[in-house]
Model the fold of this input.
Amino acid sequence: MSTIERAEVLIASPGRNFVTFRITTSDGVTGLGDATLNGRELAVASYLRDHLVPLLIGRDPARIEDTWQYLYRGAYWRRGPVTMTAIAAVDTALWDIKGKVANLPVYQLLGGRSRDGVMVYSHASGSDSAELLDDVARFLDLGYLAVRAQAAVPNVKGTYGVRKGTVYEPAATALPDEQPWDTPAYLDFAPTYLAAVRERFGFGFHLLHDVHHRLTPVEAARFGKSVEDLRLFWMEDPTPAENQEAFRLIRQHTTTPIAVGENLSSIWDVQHLITEQLIDYVRTTVVHAGGITHLRRVFDLAALYQVRTGSHGATDLSPVSMAAAVHVDISVPNFGIQEYMGHTPEVAEVFHSDVRFENGMLHPSDAPGLGVEYDDDAAARFPYDPRYLPVARLADGSMHDW
Ligand SMILES: [Mg+2]
Done:
């Protein structure tokens, strides 16, 4: 029987930090899993290195479900982003190995294709409406079928979602950047630039918007109502989701579709959102929600309630996560959309991925497993670089949700 012989935590910062987990079997087969928890990377690295690696050595790599249950139930301390990201890294690496052993791409092991490609959306942004409109035009010219639109709120320095330079990378400073927030200014401004996008480009593409947890339920309800005529594909994270019940109020007041879940890590975190049909899209991801094994469980629950998938895909999801996401997305019946921001050339030096963008869609690799290789020599040129996500404060100095 093949056994797990080696398991390594690999940390590299090709422009941003990535934690990668690599499992090697006694037959010499390797599998990769993403273990990146943006701004808290070393907690997951330690969880893996100090607590999970000793449990994995000698185990049968083919027993993916049993390993998942062993690590989840065996911890006694359940759920939470650190635990679920660590388990996800192991799970994803084992799926990669299973594909390589079977000589099949992972999506074939998940039931094969349910569609020809995976529709993605990317991020258009601008320091004002005019700049945003130019950026939307750029993404439509690149063939995107769906675009997220964000513009800087006047007098709100460092508004979330607005790119500085060529890459949107919010985890950019050695200590958290403190950014102001002004809800009334946002509520006045955001509907105007979303309307300007529709006015200039029409309705022949999907328009998305991220509220980034900034509103109370009643503010979110008001926002959703105010943009109903613009037919958004979704408004994302209109209010923080710890209290799932809060979405009922939003739901009762607006037909603007709702997407939630990028920072949630288990099926129990989205249980009521899904079963009570309080959302339209669930944004849980392979890397932060327990790997392919657990994410499929979330998506299957969602399918019962006509909730579609819309996984997170920001730059902190490594090419290993993006590849795994595309294998899942292409196979599940209730796929909705996939976030995709692409990666820089430095990231591509470390991670060689065969995922392909064409006509607004991503296509999985047909290589056995996930189709991603990790270049250790390239990674050695990019040592770990501590970074934090920003925090937000209101004008009176109180902390707000970033
Ligand atoms: Mg988001």
